[in-house]
Design brief:
The protein is of the alpha+beta class. The protein contains 18 helices and 21 strands.
Length: about 550
């Protein structure tokens, strides 16, 4: 609002009801949002982290300690907090693990920045110092990374990612299955995680999970009279309906003679028979169709002993292509014997209360499936999230061939080297670099706290041990520091690189905000609950005075 000339008449720039926070108020509010969000997920970090129970408006329950799942399920309204949720989502998409680490580092960077702002250090100086520190941190991380992608290392990485996520009883076999799956779908050093399909089935226990050297789809045969099992399968994949298409126009056909009606129906039936003949002529004995299959076609296919499935998902069709070597046909007239794929056996099987179709014994399949079992729905869901994390970290390691020690070792080493680097910087940026170094120690500190250890003693022991070796981390099960390479606690280089980089960038962006203008929305009463509180967050966020 501004005054016009000397007349004292106000000029309204923003609509009535708009809320605005300026300068330190805006910064304090955004920093508080980041700190609250980080505190919320902090207790889930590490092998001894606790779980969160999330209940939505419909009463559906999610029990998990997966950072990104918690943040996605929470009803977060604060705009700055949403930016940190994006950090977790990016971490999940890029690597598949380390989401909690990224968020708590970002929260701690904001907390340390608040102390600098209270000393009248300009936010731009803090942001510049953080940027310098993040660049230096990446150099230090590269210097302490280990080149490795042998099978034992990959299994250890998968086990590290799954530890503390309800998979303890079957960590070793699950890790081996994940490594086998990732290695199987690798093409030219690259891995498409979509080619690893996870079928989650409740009932039984996690130790009964298995990897299928082929594809599993949650469908059933279209006709129970079709064979339940086909050996030596010749597989046709159709993205074409075996049924008469509806007219795309509003044209009407007027029939005046019953014979014409009969001819019309016979013509439709002949068209369907011709389409089925195309499938039979190709020599296929298994048919997967992405579209519909007419009842008459189903009858003929069943009579000929063809195993047919309709309405198969696009993603499953793509995996079938990769596994069987079949070509996805978009026009049934183009279907020939050379377009067929192969599998040793295709069969239908009921597991617990789900009917599945197995396509197994494929020759060098570039798509595989993992069947996960869990005693209850919630257990199975959490195991699936753990396996997805493991797939992400193993894929990153296979692609980059670089790992780092776990147990907080990289963060302590980077913190130590950054403090040394800070002494080489003149100006106030030195304080920001030092604050960045101290913020990274939140990871080993949190690991110790979640394990019931004394965090100060643990940090002192780690700092002292890092004068000897950069690979010494905290063994939370025994309560002492140890070389993480000796106990096989390893993480992909990419997890730490992405976590530090995205946390630094998010903190930098939030610190540069000095004005928050929140519209009340058209036709709505102004509601700053999302600005001054954290909707859906435990404890909320206190209003800024």
């Amino acid at each position: 609002m501004a005054q016009l000339g000397g007349q004292g008449q106000p000029i309204l720039i923003l609509p009535e009801g708009t809320n605005r926070f300026l300068g330190r108020d805006a910064q304090r509010m955004n920093i508080m949002a980041g700190k609250v969000l980080a505190e919320t997920v902090r207790t889930t970090l590490g092998p001894k982290g606790m779980d969160k129970m999330l209940v939505d408006s419909l009463g559906d329950i999610v029990v998990t300690n997966d950072g990104v799942t918690i943040l996605k399920e929470m009803d977060i309204e604060h705009p700055a907090a949403k930016m940190l949720v994006e950090v977790a989502k990016t971490q999940e998409d890029e690597v598949g693990d380390g989401t909690t680490t990224a968020v708590i580092i970002a929260g701690e960077l904001l907390k340390k920045a608040e102390g600098l702002l209270d000393q009248d250090i300009h936010p731009t100086i803090v942001a510049m110092g953080y940027r310098q520190a993040a660049e230096k941190a990446q150099e230090i991380l590269d210097s302490i990374s280990i080149v490795a992608d042998d099978r034992d290392t990959l299994i250890n990485i998968a086990m590290t990612a799954m530890t503390g996520k309800g998979t303890e009883k079957a960590r070793q076999p699950l890790a081996e299955q994940v490594v086998d799956a990732v290695k199987q779908v690798e093409e030219n050093g690259e891995i498409d995680k979509d080619n690893i399909n996870i079928q989650r089935i409740q009932g039984a226990t996690v130790v009964e999970s298995q990897i299928v050297n082929g594809v599993v789809i949650d469908k059933s045969r279209i006709d129970p009279s079709m064979p339940k099992k086909i050996e030596g399968a010749k597989i046709a994949l159709l993205k074409y309906p075996i049924e008469v298409k509806d007219l795309e126009t509003d044209a009407k056909i007027k029939l005046t003679d019953p014979a014409q009606m009969k001819a019309f129906i016979e013509n439709e039936e002949q068209m369907i028979k011709d389409m089925v003949d195309k499938v039979l002529d190709s020599g296929a004995n298994v048919l997967f169709c992405q579209k519909g299959i007419d009842d008459l076609a189903q009858h003929i296919l069943a009579r000929e002993g063809i195993f047919a499935v309709k309405r198969v998902r696009k993603s499953d069709m793509e995996r079938l292509e990769k596994a069987t070597g079949a070509k996805l046909i978009t026009n049934i007239d183009d279907l020939t014997a050379k377009d067929l794929g192969g599998a040793g056996i295709v069969y239908e099987k009921k597991i617990f209360d789900e009917i599945l179709i197995f396509i197994e014994q494929c020759k060098d399949p570039k798509a595989v499936s993992i069947i996960l079992r869990g005693s209850t729905k919630h257990v199975a869901e959490e195991i699936e999230r753990a396996v997805e994390d493991a797939i992400g970290v193993v894929s990153a390691t296979v692609e980059d061939k670089k790992v780092v020690a776990g147990g907080g070792a990289p963060e302590i080493e980077i913190s130590k080297k950054l403090k040394e680097y800070a002494h080489t910087i003149s100006g106030r940026e030195q304080l920001a670099v030092t604050a960045f170094a101290e913020a990274l120690e939140i990871v080993p500190k949190t690991l110790a706290e979640n394990a019931g250890l004394d965090s100060i003693d643990s940090l002192v022991d780690l700092r002292s041990a890092h004068e000897i070796s950069p690979y010494i981390g905290l063994n939370v099960f025994e309560g002492f520091v140890i070389d993480m390479r000796d106990v096989g606690v390893l993480e992909p280089h990419r997890v730490k690189k992405q976590a530090i980089q995205s946390a630094a960038e998010a903190a930098e962006m939030i610190l540069r905000i000095d004005d928050v203008i929140a519209s009340s929305g058209a036709g709505k009463e102004p509601d700053m609950a999302g600005m001054e509180g954290m909707g859906g967050m435990p404890g909320g966020m206190p209003p800024m005075m």
